[in-house]
Amino acid sequence: MNSRWMGAWFAAVLMLVCVTGMVQAETELKELGLSPLYGPEIKSNEQFRQMIKETLPDLKEGFEKAGAAALFEDFVVQAGGFETQMIEVNPGERLQWMIFRKEKTVKVAKDLVWEGKEPFTAFLVQVDKTGTRYVFVIQAKSGNVSLAMTTPVPAVALAPNLNAVPFCEVVIAPVSLPVGSDVTIDASQSADPDGIISSVLIQVTDADNNVVKKTIDQPPFIEHMTMSKPGNYEIRVSATDNKGKEAYSPGCPETKITVTPTKEVALAPWPGNFVADLGYMYQGDPEHFLLLRMGYDYHFTDYFSLLGMVGAAPVLKGAGDADSLMIDLTAHLHSQRMDYGAGVGFWHSDMGDKVDCIVNAAYRFYGEKDQLNVSVFVEGRAAFDQFDKLADFGRLGAGLRFQF
User: Do residues 34 and 107 share a domain?
Assistant: First the structure.
C-alpha cells in the first residue's frame, strides 16, 4: 500500500475514532418520567411555583452536584417570582446537565440530547449573572431541571439606566393571634423583572409607635416572628432588587394584626366540669335499665381527667334484678372531640353488691370542652367476679352526656 493510501486510511480511522468518542460523550434521553424529581405533572405556573417550594433541598443538592451552587438562589428567585414561559423542547436539542432523582437519591446527568419522537413541554427560566444568561428548562412531566445553554446577556439588559421596579408581594397570617404565638410573614413571591430580589425589609410598629426592623437577605424571604406582647400592630414589608430599587406596592400593603392576652387561669379551686348522664343499659339475662348519673370531671391537664359519678338504674323491664344504685370512678383521656375512659364502679341492689370494671367512650358533637357541651357515649361494665358469665351479667349502655 503506497503512502498516499496509507495517509488517507489513517485519517479516516482517526476521524471515525473522534466521531465515536463525541457520540459516546453524549447521553441520549428518549423517554421522560422514568426518574422524576417531582411526582405530579406540572400544568400551571402556580403548580410550578409549588414544585419549586417542595423540592428546594433536592434542587440545592442538585445544583451543588452540577457545579452550579452559585446559581441556586438566583434560580429559585426567578423561578418563583413571576409568570414563567412554557416552551417545547424539540428532538435533537441538547442539554448541558439535568437534575433528577433515582431511588430517592438526587443525581446529575451531563451532556444530554433529547431523542424522543415528539417535543416535550417545559418551563423556561432565565438567570442573568455576571454578564452571562443561563437558560434553564424544567420538564413539566417530571420536574427535572436542566441547564440548556449559556449566552451573553443582551446589552440592553446590562444598561445601567434601565432598572424596572421590583414587584413586592407578601402574605401575613394570622392577623389575630394570642400572645406568645408566631406570625408568618411570607414575601417569597416578590420578584424583579430584570434582576433578582436581594433583600426584604420588615417593619413592625406597635400601638406606641415603637418600630422594630428586620432585614432578610436570603431567599425564600419568609420570617416567623414571635409576638411577645399583646396589642395592635402594623406590619409593612418592602422588597429591594439587586440594583437598590425598593418597592412596597401593590402587593405589600400595610397589614394590621391584633395580639390578644393569654386566657386567664380560672379562679375556681377545682378545674373541670359538672357532668350528667341520661341513657339506657341492657343486661344479658335479660334486664333493661334507665341510666341516671351525675358527677364532676376533674381535669389534671387538657388531655387527662378523673370523673366521679353517682346515680341510679331503675328497672324498665325484666325480673332478674332490682332497681340499683351506683358509684363510679373512671379515668379519661381526651383527644380532640373523642373521650376514652376506664375505671371501677360500685353497683348496689337488693340482689347483692358488686364491684364493676367499666370501659366507655364518648364523642362530643355540640359545644366546646370548656363550655356547655353534649356528647353521645357508649359503656360496658361487668362485675369482676362475673367475667366468666358476661353473656348473662355483662351490661351495655348508651346515652347522652351533658357537661356544664
Answer: yes
277 occurs within a structural domain: yes
Closest CA to 146 of 202, 203, 99: 99
- Helices 45-54 and 72-81: crossing angle in degrees, nearest 10, is 150
State the Cα–Cα distance between residues 43 and 39, nearest whole angstrom.
Answer: 12
Please give the model's pTM, rounded to 2 decimal places. Answer: 0.37
Domain limits for position 247 = 171-260
> CA separation (Å) from 327 to 92, 108, 248, 280?
84, 71, 67, 17
**Cell numbers placing 98:** 439535568
Give the three-class secondary structure for 10: helix
Longest dimension (CA), the chain: 128
- CB contact at 8 A, 336 and 368: no
40 Cβ contact partners less than 8 Å away, ≥ 6 residues apart:
47
Residue type, 14: L
Please give the chain's pLDDT, 404 residues, in tens.
Answer: 444 443 343 344 334 333 333 334 578 888 888 889 887 888 888 888 888 888 999 999 999 999 999 999 989 888 876 566 778 888 888 999 999 998 889 999 999 999 988 888 888 888 988 889 999 999 998 999 999 988 888 765 444 556 677 888 889 999 999 988 899 999 888 888 778 889 999 999 988 889 999 999 888 899 999 888 899 999 999 999 888 888 876 668 888 999 998 754 444 456 888 999 999 999 888 889 999 999 999 999 888 999 999 999 999 888 666 788 999 999 999 988 999 999 999 999 888 899 999 999 999 999 887 778 999 999 999 999 989 988 888 999 999 999 98
Expressed in angstroms, the distance from the first to the final Cα of the chain is 111
Say if 13 falls within a structural domain: no
> Is residue 100 in a domain?
yes
Q: 359 with 339: CB under 8 angstroms?
A: no
The total number of structural domains in the chain stands at 3
- Cα 144 to Cα 35: distance, rounded to the nearest angstrom: 8
Question: Buried b / exposed e across 160-186, counting CB within 10 Å, b at 16+?
Answer: eeebeebbbbbebeeeeeeeeeebebb
Residue with cell 424539540: 90
